[in-house]
Design goal:
Blueprint lengths: L1 H22 L3 H9 L3 H10 E8 L19 E5 L14 E7 L72 H8 L28 E12 L2 E9 L3 E3 L26 E6 L2 E3 L13 E7 L8 H17 L10 E12 L11 E9 L4 E9 L22 E5 L6 E3 L16 E3 L2 E2 L1 E5 L5 E2 L11 E2 L1 E3 L2 E3 L5 E5 L9 E5 L2 E4 L1 E4 L2 E5 L7 E9 L6 E8 L8 E3 L12 E5 L11 E10 L6 E13 L3 E4 L16 E8 L3 H4 L6 E3 L3 E2 L1 H12 L3 H13 L16 H6 L4 E3 L17 E7 L10 E5 L4 E2 L30 H16 L6 H10 L12 E6 L3 E3 L5 E3 L4 E8 L7 E8 L11 E9 L6 E5 L10 E5 L2 E3 L8 E4 L2 E4 L9 E6 L4 E7 L2 E8 L7 E2 L28 H7 L27 H4 L12 H4 L5 H11 L3 H10 L2 H22 L14 E3 L9 E6 L3 E4 L3 E3 L15 E4 H41 L11 H11 L23 E2 ...
Parallel strand pairs: 19-28, 21-28
Antiparallel strand pairs: 1-2, 1-3, 4-5, 5-6, 6-7, 7-13, 8-10, 9-10, 10-11, 11-12, 12-17, 13-14, 15-16, 17-18, 20-22, 22-26, 23-24, 23-27, 25-26, 27-28, 29-30, 30-33, 31-32, 31-34, 34-35, 34-36, 37-38, 38-39, 39-40, 41-42, 41-54, 42-43, 44-45, 44-55, 45-46, 46-47, 47-48, 48-49, 50-51, 51-52, ...
Helix pairs in contact: 7-8, 8-10, 8-11, 10-11, 15-16, 16-17
C-alpha cells in the first residue's frame, strides 16, 4: 500500500513538473530568444543602414538633466555619410557614427486607421492581427542620450530609474510627443540597466496567479479609494479577495454579500489565463507574461522618462475623453498582459495568446483607465465552456468594473461575456486607435469611446460639461455612438435642436442654444435618420446662479455713472492660445411681448487679445443711439473672433457675465429721452406698470423674526446666493445684512419671499431702510412654462424686481418719492407678527426617534419603514427610512440597527433618496443623493441648489462632501439629512397646515403625545414607552414597507438595484435588544464599559444605550449630539414669537435702531432742514404692540410746512374752543332767558351799554330842529366812575328833593360820548324789527301782522327780538302798539332826566340782541326813556278807528336819515327821564 502511495505521489510530482516546464520558459531560453537575431535579418539591417556622424558640441553644465530629445543643429551637427556603407567606419574623437535605418512602412492592415488630434497631427501606426513592432527593432541604433540609453518607445530595456524634480530639466518637443503618441502600446520592459527583469513579474505563474502591489498613493475607483492593488494573471487588478468559486456567466455585484465575497476589481479581460509562448520568428521577443510599472509624482518631475510619461498620458486622456480638458496625471500605473493563453488548454494552445494592456492615470481625485487590446486570439477558458485548443465557445471573458462589497458594478456591453468580445481589438477608436477604449472610473464609470455595436431603446450618452448657462454658448463634447463625418448629427436640448459638428469618430460638438428652462432637461442626439435613442440629462444653470465666467473687479458696474469698469476672465476658458483675438459685446433683456427678448445691443470691443482682462470706459459710448435703449439690464459676452484658427472648428465658447444694470452705457440716452431726472422717470414708468399686476404678497410665507428661526425653518427657506454668511457675505444689494434666506421653491403664482437679517440677527425691513428684505414677484427659478414673459428663470426676476431697485432707490436718494413708493407700496417687507415655526421630528442613533409632539422612544426595526406620511389626500407626502443592522463589535454580533437611507416624495413631485455611502467610499462624498433613481452631485457652485419637479435639493455652500442634504417640497415640507463618521440623522420639518394630518413612526402632530402611536388603521395603540418589546411588536412593525402598496402604509420609494427588493433589507423576525438601561443588559464583567458609557454620555440614555451596544465611541458621541440638537430645535420652535411688527420710518427721517422685539426702544430723528413732530421715541411692549404715542405719530416736516401747521393748529384751536364756548354762552343765556320769561313775561335782560350807542341815543333824544335852546353839548361831557353806585332822580339821604330844570342836550358832536371823556370809538350799526306785544311781527307801513311767508325774512333781518322789550303805549286791537296821545307825550317830555344815567343807556349798551317795540302798556322796566323808531310811516299812522284821510300826525318825524348804533334805532325826540318810582340802582 505504501508503495502504491509512493508511486502515485511520484507520478503527481512528475506531472506537476511537466506542467511547470510547459508553463514557464527558463531564463536562459528567454534570453536566447530575445538576444538572438536571425542572420538574414541582421544582413538586412546592415544593408539598410546609413551611418551619420554625430559631432558633440560643448554643452552647458546640466548634471541632473538629460540632453533634450530634439536633435537641433545647435546641439548636434549631423553629416550624412555615404549612401551605402557595409559597416561602420571608425569614429574620430570629435564624433561617432551612428547607424540610421530607413524602413519602408508596413503594408496597410486590413483594419483602417483614423485621424488623431495630436499636437503635430500625426497618425497612429497600423496594427496587424499579431503583436508586431511598428518598426524592426534596432536596439541601440535609434536615439541615444549622453548616458547611451536608447529612447526608442519600443525598447525592451527600462530607462534609468532616476526621478528628478530639479529645475531646468527635460522639455519635450511637439515632434517627440507626436512620436510617442503614435505608438499603440505604452511602455513595458523585460530588462533594465542593472541586469534585472524590468517590469516583468516572474513571480506570477499558474501556481500563484496574483501578486500584491503597494501603490503608495490614493487611487479613487468607483467611489472607493485604494492605496494598493493585486495584480492577477487572470486579466484584472483587484482590491479584495475574489469569491471562492465562480459561476458563469459572472454577475456582479455578488447579491449574497457579505455571506459571499464580492471583490472590487478592474477587469480588462477577466478570464482564467496562463502564461503562453511565443515563436522565435515573432518580431517582439519580449518575455510572455504579466508586466507592471508604477510611475509616481509626475506633476513635478523633470527627468525625461517622467516628463514623457506625463505628457503622453495627459494628452491621450484629454483628447480621448470628454470633460478631461484640465486633467494632469499625478501617478500612472501600466499593467500589461503579453502573450497570455487560456487555462485548461492542451497541445499547442500555449501559442494561442492574447495581448492587452491597462493604463491607469490619476490625480488622486479623478481616475482614467485606458484599455489597449493589441491581439485577441481566444475568448474563454475551459471552465467557462471553451474548447481546449483554441479557447472558443463557452462564456467569454468579463470586461468591466466592480466596486465590491455588494455596491455597484459596470459591465462593458455588448462585448463583455459575448461573442463580439473579439471586436474589442477593432473598436473603441480612442485617440484614433482601433482597439483603444478609455473610461473615467473614479466615481462613476463613464465611457470615453464610441460604441457602434450596441443597440437599444435608451442608450447612455457621455457628454461634458454636464451643465451650462441658460443663455447658451456652452460647447458640449459628446461621446456615444461612432460618428461619421458624412452623417448628420442632431442635438436636442429640451425643446431646442441644433446641428452637431464632427471632430472624430469618438466625438461631436454641439453648442448649447438659449434655453428658457432651468434644472435638469432632456438631452438627446440622433445620428442620420435614426431616432433619438442616445439620451442623458443636462443641467441648465440660471443666469443669476450660473458659474461666474466674467468677473468685475469692483462694484462700479452697478453705479449710475462710473468712470471705468474693470473685468477679468480665465483666458483658457476660450482657448489655450493666449494670442487669440476675442470680441466683447453687450446684450440686454426686456419683456414687451409674450416671448422673452434677449437682444444684442452693441460691441464693446471688436478685437482684443485674449489676455484675460479689459477696462471698459463708459465715456466712449456717449454718442450711441440704440433702438432698444429701453433695456435696463443685460450681460457682457466674450467669444473668439476667429475660432477656426485655433481649434480647426468654426465654433467658439461663449463666456457670459452675471446680470448687470446698464446705466453705465444707457445713461446718456436715457438723459436725452427723460431729462436729467431719468432715474425718476424710469421708476415712475415701472410703478405705473407694476400697479396693473396682481398683488402677490398674500401668497408668500411670512419671514421668521430672527436669524435663528430662519436657519431652523428648513422646509420653507434656503440661503440666498446674493447674501450668504457662508459663501457670499458681501450683500451688495442688502448692506448691513449678514445673511438672507429666500423661498426654497416658488409659490403657486411663482413669487419668492426674501428675508434678510442684520448683525444682531433681527429681520431687516424696507420700512426702515432701502436695504431691507424685498419680496419678489418672480422666483429666480421662474415658473412653468418658462418660455413666456414673466416666467423665465432669473431674467423675469431681474426685469420685475431687480431692475426697479436700481432706478427707484440705488440711483436715487433713499427718501426719494419713487424709492419710498417702491419700499412701502410695491415691494414692502412682510413682518413676522403672525410667523409660525414648523414642527420637527427626527431619528438618529440605532435608532432613536422623537415625534412631533416630543415623545422619545427607541425602535430597532430591520427593514424599511414609514417615518411620516400625510393622511390628507389633497396634501400628500411620504418620508421613509431604511434601517440596517450595525456591524459586529469586539464581542460579536450587535442586535441593533441604524438609519442608512431616507426616501421621500411629495404629492406629484420627484422622488428623492439620500443614502449613506459605504465605509471606504466616503473619502469624497459622504452621502449619495438620487433623484428618480439617478445620482446627482453638488460639488460645484452652480450645482449647489438643484430644482426638480416640485422639490428643491441643496447642500450648504461651505460643504463639498455632501455630508448634509436639505430637501424642500412645494408644500413647505423640509427634510434634513446629516452624516458624521458614518452615522446619519434625519429630521422632518412640517408647516402648521399638517396638524392632525400625519401618521407613521413620527406620530400624529396634534400637540398631544397621547395619540403619537396611531396605527395605520387609525386606532391609537396603548403603548408604554418603557416597554420596548410591546412598542416594537404592536406599533413599529405595523409601519414596515414592502414593494407592493399596502393600504394606509404605502409602497417603498427606494431605488432598487441589482435585484435587491424590500425583502432583501426587511426581516420581521429580527429580535433586537429590548432592554434600555446598559446596567441591565451588560454582564457583570463589563463594568468598565458601563463606566465608559456614563463618562461619555452623562445622563443621555440614548447615548449610553448606543455605546453599550456597539462600543463605538463615535456613535455614542453623535447620538448625544443629534439628540441635543433635535431637542433644542423643538424648544426653540416651541417658543412663543412676540413681535411688534412694522414701525414705519417717518419720511425725510430715520430710525436710530430697527429692533421690533419686546423691550426695544426706537428713537427717531429727521434730516437737516426738517423738524420732528410727534413722539421722539417708541417702545415695543411685552404684549406685541407699540406704545401709544403721547404727542402724536412721528413725522418730519419742512420748516415752512411746520410753521403753517402751527398756524393752522392755532386757528383750529381757536375755532374749536371759542366757537363751542360761544355756543355754550348763547345756549346758557337762552335757557336763562326762557326761564326768566316763564316767570315774568315782561322780564328784560340787563345788557352792557355801549358808549357810542349812548351818544347816538342822546343825540336823537335831544334832537329838535325848532328848539333854539342854548344848552351846550359840553354839559353831557361828564366823567363817570364805573366803580360807584349812582341813584338817579331819587332824593339824597338827608337832603331835600330838587327839581332840575329841563335843558337842551347838545348832541352836535357826532362821535363824542356823553358819558365818557375818552377818545373816539368805532361805530356800530344794526337793525331792529317791529314786533307786537305778543311777539307778532308788524308791517312797517300799516302795522298789520306779517304772515309766515314774510316772517322768515323778518327773522333773517332781526333775530334779536325780546318780548320784554316793549314801549310805552297801548296795544292796539289790530295788533300794533298805539302811540301816546299828545297830552301824554307832552307830560313825558316835561319829566326830569339825569344826564349821567338813563334807561336809554341801559337799553342801548350792547343792545344789538334786543328787539325794540314802539308801544308798551307800561313804562320800561329800566325806567328809561322810551325810544321810538325813526319811521315816518310809524309816526303818521292814525290811531285805530280814525280814518287815514282825516288823521293828523301826532308828531312830525325827523327828516334826517335813520341811524342805529349797537343795533338800536335812534330814539324819538319825545323822551323823558323815567319816573323815580320805577328807578333801580344800577352798578356799573
Amino acid at each position: 500500500m505504501r508503495f502504491k502511495l509512493f508511486v502515485v505521489c511520484a507520478l503527481a510530482c512528475g506531472f506537476m513538473a511537466y506542467v511547470l516546464a510547459n508553463e514557464n520558459i527558463s531564463t536562459e531560453v528567454e534570453d536566447q530568444i530575445i538576444n538572438t537575431v536571425p542572420a538574414n535579418k541582421a544582413n538586412k539591417i546592415a544593408q539598410a543602414a546609413e551611418f551619420v556622424e554625430i559631432v558633440d558640441q560643448p554643452k552647458k553644465a546640466t548634471p541632473s538633466s538629460p540632453s533634450p530629445p530634439a536633435a537641433a543643429a545647435s546641439d548636434k551637427k549631423v553629416q550624412k555619410a555615404p549612401a551605402v556603407t557595409p559597416k561602420p567606419s571608425p569614429t574620430t574623437s570629435a564624433g561617432k557614427l551612428v547607424p540610421v535605418v530607413h524602413v519602408a512602412p508596413l503594408a496597410a492592415s486590413s483594419r483602417g486607421t483614423d485621424d488623431i488630434l495630436t499636437v503635430s497631427g500625426l497618425k497612429p501606426q497600423p496594427k496587424s492581427g499579431a503583436l508586431v513592432m511598428p518598426f524592426d527593432y534596432l536596439g541601440e541604433l535609434y536615439d541615444l542620450d549622453s548616458s547611451g540609453y536608447n529612447w526608442d518607445p519600443n525598447n525592451n530595456v527600462a530607462p534609468p530609474d532616476t526621478p528628478s524634480t530639479a529645475a531646468g530639466g527635460y522639455t519635450i518637443t511637439s515632434a517627440r510627443l507626436a512620436e510617442l503618441r503614435s505608438n499603440f502600446m505604452y511602455w513595458f520592459f523585460d530588462k533594465d540597466n542593472y541586469g534585472g527583469r524590468g517590469d516583468y513579474q516572474f513571480d506570477i505563474h499558474a501556481s500563484m496567479t496574483q501578486l500584491h502591489k503597494n501603490l503608495n498613493f490614493q487611487m479613487p475607483f468607483y467611489g472607493f479609494r485604494f492605496n494598493y492593488t493585486r495584480l492577477s494573471l487572470n486579466g484584472y487588478l483587484e482590491f479584495s479577495d475574489p469569491p471562492e468559486y465562480l459561476t458563469y456567466p459572472l454577475v456582479f455585484p455578488i447579491k449574497d454579500w457579505p455571506n459571499k465575497r464580492d471583490p472590487s476589481f478592474m477587469g480588462i479581460f477577466f478570464s482564467k489565463c496562463r502564461v503562453g509562448r511565443i515563436y522565435p520568428s515573432d518580431l517582439d521577443q519580449r518575455t510572455p507574461g504579466v508586466y507592471f510599472r508604477v510611475v509616481r509624482d509626475l506633476m513635478g518631475r523633470t527627468d525625461r522618462f517622467g516628463v514623457e510619461v506625463r505628457e503622453r498620458t495627459m494628452w491621450d486622456i484629454r483628447t480621448g475623453v470628454v470633460g478631461a480638458d484640465t486633467f494632469v496625471p499625478k501617478h500612472v500605473v501600466i499593467a500589461t498582459w503579453k502573450n497570455v493563453s487560456f487555462a485548461g488548454g492542451i497541445d499547442n494552445s500555449l501559442f494561442t495568446t492574447n495581448t492587452f494592456q491597462m493604463v491607469l492615470a490619476t490625480d488622486e481625485v479623478y481616475t482614467y483607465a485606458i484599455f489597449n487590446y493589441a491581439v485577441l486570439n481566444w475568448l474563454s477558458h475551459t471552465e467557462a465552456g471553451g474548447d481546449t485548443t483554441k479557447g472558443e465557445g463557452g462564456v467569454p471573458a468579463f470586461v468591466g468594473f466592480n466596486a465590491g462589497n455588494g455596491t455597484q458594478a459596470y459591465e462593458y456591453k455588448p462585448y463583455s461575456q459575448n461573442m463580439v468580445i473579439r471586436d474589442l481589438a477593432n473598436r473603441g477608436w480612442g485617440n484614433g486607435f482601433p482597439g483603444r477604449h478609455i473610461f473615467r472610473i473614479d466615481e462613476q464609470i463613464l465611457i470615453g469611446s464610441c460604441n457602434k455595436d450596441i443597440d437599444a431603446a435608451l442608450l447612455p450618452l457621455t457628454f461634458a460639461p454636464e451643465s451650462g448657462n441658460m443663455l447658451g454658448g456652452q460647447v458640449v463634447n459628446i461621446t456615444g455612438p461612432c460618428f461619421d463625418p458624412s452623417i448628420r448629427v442632431t442635438c436636442h436640448f429640451d425643446t431646442e435642436s441644433v446641428l452637431g459638428t464632427y471632430v472624430d469618430r469618438n466625438r461631436v460638438i454641439c453648442v448649447q442654444p438659449f434655453l428658457k428652462a432651468e434644472g435638469y432637461i432632456r438631452f438627446q442626439i440622433s445620428v442620420g435618420t435614426q431616432r433619438f435613442k442616445w439620451r442623458g440629462k443636462y443641467f441648465v444653470e440660471t443666469p443669476a446662479a450660473a458659474t461666474e465666467k466674467i468677473f468685475f473687479a469692483t462694484d462700479d458696474v452697478h453705479k449710475r455713472n462710473p468712470s471705468e469698469i474693470r473685468i477679468t476672465w480665465n483666458a483658457f476658458n476660450l482657448t489655450s492660445n493666449l494670442n487669440a483675438n476675442v470680441m466683447i459685446s453687450l446684450w440686454g433683456y426686456r419683456e414687451t411681448k409674450i416671448e422673452p427678448q434677449l437682444e444684442y445691443i452693441d460691441v464693446i470691443e471688436a478685437s482684443y487679445t485674449n489676455t484675460g482682462s479689459y477696462v471698459i470706459t463708459p465715456s466712449n459710448y456717449l454718442t450711441r443711439h440704440n433702438i432698444n435703449n429701453d433695456m435696463q439690464f443685460g450681460f457682457l459676452q466674450i467669444n473668439l473672433t476667429q475660432p477656426e484658427q485655433y481649434s480647426n472648428l468654426a465654433l467658439s465658447p461663449i463666456l457670459w457675465s452675471r446680470p448687470i444694470p446698464l446705466a453705465w452705457y444707457m445713461a446718456p440716452q436715457w438723459e436725452q429721452k427723460h431729462g436729467k431726472r431719468w432715474p425718476r422717470a424710469l421708476c415712475d414708468n415701472w410703478i405705473r406698470a407694476d400697479r396693473f399686476l396682481r398683488n402677490f404678497a398674500a401668497d408668500l410665507p411670512l419671514c421668521p423674526c430672527t436669524l435663528e428661526q430662519a436657519v431652523l425653518d428648513l422646509g420653507r427657506f434656503r440661503p440666498d446666493r446674493e447674501c450668504d454668511k457662508d459663501s457670499n457675505p458681501s450683500c451688495l444689494r442688502h448692506r448691513g445684512a449678514i445673511h438672507c434666506v429666500v423661498s426654497g421653491t416658488p409659490v403657486a403664482q411663482g413669487a419668492e419671499q426674501q428675508c434678510c437679517y442684520d448683525r444682531y440677527g433681527f429681520l431687516m425691513l424696507t420700512y426702515d431702510q432701502m436695504w431691507g428684505s424685498r419680496p419678489r414677484r418672480i422666483h429666480n427659478l421662474g415658473k412653468m412654462p418658462w418660455n413666456e414673459a414673466s416666467k423665465v428663470p432669473s431674467l423675469s426676476m431681474w426685469f420685475h424686481d431687480m431692475r426697479p431697485f436700481y432706478s427707484c432707490c440705488y440711483w436715487q436718494e433713499e427718501q426719494a418719492v419713487g424709492c419710498e413708493t417702491y419700499r412701502f407700496e410695491r415691494r414692502p417687507s412682510q413682518d413676522c407678527v403672525a410667523y409660525q415655526a414648523p414642527g420637527i421630528a427626527g431619528v438618529f442613533g440605532d435608532p432613536h426617534l422623537i415625534t412631533f409632539d416630543g415623545s422619545a422612544y427607541t425602535f430597532n426595526g430591520l427593514g424599511e419603514f414609514v417615518l411620516a406620511r400625510s393622511t390628507d389626500q389633497s396634501e400628500r407626502f411620504e418620508v421613509q427610512g431604511r434601517f440596517q443592522q450595525l456591524p459586529p463589535n469586539y464581542y460579536g454580533q450587535v442586535m441593533a440597527t441604524q438609519l442608512t437611507a431616507l426616501a421621500m416624495r411629495g404629492n406629484t413631485t420627484t422622488t428623492i433618496e439620500v443614502r449613506l455611502r459605504p465605509l471606504h467610499a466616503r473619502w469624497r462624498y459622504r452621502l449619495d443623493v438620487l433623484a428618480d433613481g439617478r445620482k446627482v452631485y453638488f460639488d460645484r457652485e452652480s450645482l449647489k441648489f438643484q430644482h426638480f419637479d416640485g422639490v428643491t435639493v441643496y447642500t450648504p455652500t461651505y460643504l463639498l462632501n455632501q455630508s448634509q442634504v436639505v430637501v424642500q417640497f412645494d408644500a413647505g415640507i423640509g427634510v434634513e439629512v446629516v452624516e458624521n463618521e458614518g452615522f446619519m440623522t434625519g429630521r422632518v420639518f412640517l408647516p402648521w397646515k399638517f396638524i392632525n394630518k400625519t401618521a407613521g413612526l413620527f406620530g400624529n402632530w396634534s400637540f398631544n403625545p397621547l395619540d403619537d402611536f396611531t396605527l395605520p388603521n387609525g386606532q391609537v395603540a396603548s403603548i408604554n414607552l418603557n416597554d420596548m418589546r410591546s412598542l416594537y411588536n404592536n406599533f413599529g412593525l405595523k409601519w414596515m414597507l414592502t414593494d407592493r402598496d399596502v393600504p394606509n402604509v404605502g409602497a417603498a420609494l427606494f431605488t432598487r438595484e441589482f435585484g435587491r427588493m424590500a425583502s432583501y433589507y426587511s426581516n420581521a423576525t429580527f429580535q433586537p435588544n429590548f432592554v434600555m438601561d446598559p446596567a441591565d443588559f451588560l454582564p457583570s464583567n463589563r463594568s468598565y464599559d458601563l463606566e465608559r458609557a456614563e463618562e461619555l454620555c452623562g445622563e443621555c440614555s440614548q447615548c449610553q444605550y448606543d455605546y453599550a451596544m456597539t462600543l463605538n465611541r463615535d456613535l455614542a458621541h453623535f447620538t448625544k449630539n443629534y439628540y441635543d440638537s433635535l431637542v433644542n430645535m423643538q424648544a426653540e420652535n416651541a417658543k412663543r414669537v412676540v413681535s411688534c411688527g412694522v414701525l414705519q420710518t417717518p419720511r425725510f427721517g430715520r430710525k436710530l435702531s430697527f429692533d421690533f422685539m419686546p423691550g426695544a426702544k426706537v428713537a427717531f430723528e429727521c434730516n437737516e432742514g426738517f423738524i420732528l413732530v410727534g413722539d421722539q421715541r417708541r417702545e415695543c411692549l411685552s404684549n406685541g404692540l407699540w406704545n401709544l404715542p403721547e404727542y402724536g405719530y412721528t413725522e418730519c416736516l419742512r420748516e415752512v410746512y411746520y410753521t403753517r401747521r402751527v398756524a393752522f393748529i392755532a386757528i383750529g384751536i381757536i375755532i374749536l374752543v371759542i366757537v363751542p364756548l360761544m355756543l355754550c354762552i348763547v345756549c346758557g343765556v337762552y335757557r336763562y332767558r326762557q326761564k326768566q320769561l316763564k316767570e315774568d313775561p315782561h322780564w328784560q335782560m340787563t345788557l352792557p351799554r355801549s358808549r357810542a350807542g349812548s351818544t347816538r341815543n342822546l343825540r336823537t333824544l335831544n334832537y329838535d330842529p325848532e328848539d333854539d335852546s342854548d344848552t351846550d353839548a359840553s354839559t353831557l361831557k361828564k366823567s363817570r366812575s364805573y366803580d360807584k353806585v349812582y341813584r338817579t332822580n331819587e332824593p339824597l339821604p338827608g337832603k331835600p328833593q330838587i327839581d332840575f330844570p329841563a335843558k337842551k342836550w347838545d348832541l352836535d358832536m357826532q362821535d363824542e360820548d356823553v358819558t365818557s371823556s375818552e377818545g373816539e370809538k368805532p361805530k356800530q350799526t344794526g337793525r331792529r324789527s317791529l314786533r307786537s306785544a305778543s311777539g307778532t311781527e308788524l308791517d312797517q307801513h300799516d302795522g298789520t301782522p306779517i304772515d309766515d311767508g314774510h316772517r322768515h325774512d323778518a327773522e333773517d333781518e332781526d333775530d334779536d327780538f325780546d318780548e320784554a322789550d316793549v314801549h310805552t303805549g297801548q296795544l292796539h286791537p289790530a295788533g300794533y302798539h298805539q302811540p301816546l296821545s299828545p297830552e301824554e307825550a307832552d307830560q313825558l317830555h316835561q319829566q326830569q332826566y339825569s344826564p349821567t344815567f338813563s334807561g336809554v343807556d341801559s337799553r342801548t349798551s350792547g343792545a344789538s340782541s334786543i328787539n325794540y317795540t314802539p308801544q308798551s302798556a307800561a313804562q320800561n322796566r329800566f325806567g328809561g326813556v322810551p325810544v321810538l323808531p325813526n319811521n315816518t310811516q310809524y309816526y303818521n299812522r292814525p290811531p285805530s278807528g280814525v280814518p287815514a284821510a282825516t288823521a293828523t300826525p301826532l308828531r312830525v318825524a325827523p327828516t334826517g336819515p335813520l341811524t342805529q348804533d349797537s343795533g338800536l334805532p335812534s330814539p324819538p325826540p319825545l323822551a323823558t327821564s323815567p319816573t323815580p318810582s320805577v328807578q333801580k340802582s344800577t352798578e356799573v
